[in-house]
Every structure is written in C-alpha cells, then in structure tokens.
Design a protein that fits this description.
With 129 residues, the chain is mostly beta strands. The chain has no helices and 10 strands. The strands form 2 sheets. The protein has a 7-stranded antiparallel beta sheet with strand order 1-2-3-4-10-5-8, with no helix packed on it. It has a 3-stranded antiparallel beta sheet with strand order 7-6-9, with no helix packed on it.
Length: 129
Amino acid sequence: MSLPNGAGNSLRAVPEKKNLLALPVGVRPEGDEFFETLLHGNGLRLERIISRGQISPEGFWYDQAEDEWVLVLEGEAEIARADGSVIRLFRGDSLFLPKGMKHRVAYTSDPCVWLALHGNLAGTAPGPR
C-alpha cells in the first residue's frame, strides 16, 4: 500500500489491518526482541518493537546515524544515556533521541510494546507552543 506524501514520492505501508498491541505467536521472553517495519519510505522507517524484558548488553551503546522518536504503547522502559541520566518511560510516553546521542535500553517490562520512528527528524521534535 502506498500513501502519497504530496511530493510525488510515497511511503510503503503494511497493507493489512493490524492490532499493534497484540503479541505475535512465538514472541517469548527468552527469545529475541520482535521488530516489524510498519511503514517506510522517503528516508523514514516506522517500526513496532516488542520487548519481553530484553535490555542492551552491558557496555553497549547505541550511537545511531539517524534521529529516533520512540513511543511506549504498552508497558514500561528505561533509556540510559551516556551522561548517566536515566529516563523512565510509561505507557503513552514518548522520547526523541537525536542522532549521535549515545543511549542504551536499561530496562523493559514483559511485554513492552514500542513504536520507533527513524530518519532525519531534526526540526520536527515537538516543543512548547
């Protein structure tokens, strides 16, 4: 399914109806996190991530070349930043992580369902109006 963006390009979307809170068969706590691309195109990628207690390995830091915006749909998570701060996210909370910001996943509940938008989002992060 293509969604026009008004610039002659299109975003590619998963064509079927989907319940983003439903856990797919086979997603187990002892297994890997589940990643599913829901929408992609024009330099953007929207993923659903299902964590079941997984965390980043000790000493590992994400240092991404793209901005990332995450939204916790269900559950809880903690994002640790290289400056020592830890951000606790609950259902409905979102967080903008600019490219180059070192961070790691320090905690996830079982389950934790996320949406993650990746791309060049500079200038699009919400702020006070």
